[in-house]
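Final report, Chapter 2: Outcomes

The project's central promise was a pipeline that accepts a single protein chain and returns its three-dimensional structure in a standardized token representation, suitable for archiving and comparison. That pipeline is now operational. To close this chapter, we reproduce one record exactly as it appears in the project archive, with the input sequence first and the structure output second.
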Amino acid sequence: MELLTPHLSSVRVPTATSKVYKDECVFSFDNPETETGLYVGLKSFFGLGRDYVEKHFHKTGEAVYLHIRRVRHEVSSPPQGDGPEKKITRLAIGVDGGFDPEAMSKKFEFEDSYNIVVLPGFSTIPWPNTELPQIVKSSIEGILEAPSASKVAEMEALTGTWDGEARVVSQFAHNLPQLDNGKKIPPSGWQCEKCDKTDNLWLNLTDGSILCGRRFYDGSGGNNHAIEHYNATGHPLAVKLGTITKEGKGDVFSYKEDDMVEDPNLVQHLAHWGINIANMEKTEKSMVELELELNQKSNEWSALQESDGQLKPIYGPGYTGMTNMGNSCYLNSVMQMVFSIPDFIQRYYHDAELFFNNVVGDPCEDFNAQMAKLAVGLHSGKYSVPPPAGSPVDADPPGICPLMFKALVGRGHPEFSTKKQQDAQEFFLHILTLLERNSKNKVNPGDCFKFKVEEKFQCSASKKVKYLTRSDVLLPLIIPMDAAINKDEVAAYETKKLEAEKTGKKLLANTIVRPKINFLSCLELFTQSEVINNFYSSAVNANVTARKTTRLATFPDYLCIQLKKFMLREDWVPIKLDVSIEMPDILDISSLRGTGPQSDEELLPEPKVQPPAPVMDEGVLAQLADMGFPPEACKRAVFFTHNSGLEAATAWIMEHITDSDFSDPFVPPGTESSHFTPNAEALASIVAMGFTQHQATKALKATDNNVERAMDWIFSHQDELDNVTSPPPPEFRDGDGRYKLVAFVSHMGTSTMVGHYVVHILKNGQWVIFNDNKVALSERPPKDLGYMYLYERL
């Protein structure tokens, strides 16, 4: 015990606010199940793997640790019939009700052992031990009883959010008006009051009407009579008949809140219509069951995961999987993709120790340290080794579980802090924003994606032109469905599908015929010029029409392309285009090169007077805002529809909701200045935060007048702002326009909020599939079904 005496003054007891990292090393992905276990400091409460505990000791002097070693034992599966098989009810992986990444038949129990370790000699004292000093016993007991820091961070992130399955209580549940119109609902024999539908029926809880639900994207479902009834009456809540259980549960939809909700008073609301839940049996599929069934009709899941083949696992540096932490496959796929790029490997893998040594404070709060930790986890090979001899043939490698990274990059974000499925493209942009914020004057590896976009406007009245440029990191392309090269086959398949539905037959998944579109058609649509109405021409001092053409002024080292597969249907239902795009392995975008002003072109003059502000219909703006659309998008809609009313503005929004500048500050076309003029409101907002007008203007110029991005820019360029003589930032990288396909992220499911993501990456001349923790050689990479594509310059 005398080993502990010199260190007793530094031992601490965790409090309610202490962060105890006992799940994972703060610098690596070692954990209690790692062969060398985990060392938790009795002063810092940092968890440290064997590779880092000595370094931490030499840097800080912390000498006393609780060593945790956990051994997993597989338990035999219980005999069949001991309980119901777990039913899949959610189109997700790694969350309750979803697909279990562990084999369903496998069950494990864990055996933990503890020792106190004193450095530098790694002297060991067993625990529990009654002879220990009280401060040491209290510290260890506190560590063992405290929730892990990762669990605390997860709970904090989920505060005020929902995880995609739990439904919020409807605002109408406690004061729902119910009419006394004499209606009583029979226990069976229901039919839609406006058509002959006898399934997918919804009972309006206010007036007792029974009407059919929405029509699904595949033609099944109802005839939209329930939503039409809401539009006519405003009665907000309806319950799906056939989903009501004896426990008082059922699928309740709020039309006003546009979501599935909880109705804690459902029993009373049903009793008003004479429904006794004691007699109710669930006979209809719930909404999540229907969604799952709709997706399983397609062979998309099988094709994208290559689940119909016997894929060969691959191990070693660069082939490490990532555990699905409950709908985190979007994060896993994006980070695997970016860390396949040499710029990221060089910055974070080769310089990892530099980042670790320069951490001030908690390493789990340091973005660069956590990026370096992720890089080492993926590329060291330490966590990607073949299973031991005698392991089950279907045993999956554990991979790494980036809990700390997810908690850090999602903190404070309304979407990425939750357990809901997210859009991989949005997360990709989020990571690039964080990179810019944390790079300061260092080289930002995200610059490999950055390119300059050139927009040319030609005034129809004067024929004079105007050139504007902006930066971007992603090339979003609209899919021209009318360019399908197999329209006859698709039409024949749709006819066959309708006939099958009438007869109750099911078509085999492998008989699905998707529209096939050549990728060049997507590029051609991008290069087509568009007519801009209400363009202010400084040549004639009036609003005219103009023709806008978009090109790329520079070609990045890595070109990331997003195919815009997600859209809103006419009835506002989000859908995903089920198409096959013929993506080239070698891509030449030389035809997209911008030319800049030509010698035979005359530029529009800078306006001598301030153009008049456009007149906006304030009533329509307010109505659009009430629907939840961003204020700047509402301005765009009203402007481009010439104040022609709510219906036209709403239609414009539905058509343009996926535009990259949808919610950016609105500047009427033609009034943009090539000699940058900061948006007045944006400038005032930043100056009000304590920054100078010069600093605010410089930040807004670098971020296209986007306040949020400008604030990030200020914090990541503080030295540049303080030094007025600092050199200008480096120009965009540029080069040849020939590229090769090196990775693609695929999504399976009907919308970005459900489903699953995987990524295929070209490594050493062979395609590899990264499906969360499963990493294997790809047999048939489904290049035609991707969502995001990464091309590398040749």
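Archive annotation: The chain has five domains: 5-146, 166-296, 308-387+397-448+739-782, 451-560+573-656, 684-722.
This record, like all others produced under the grant, will remain available to the consortium after the project formally closes.
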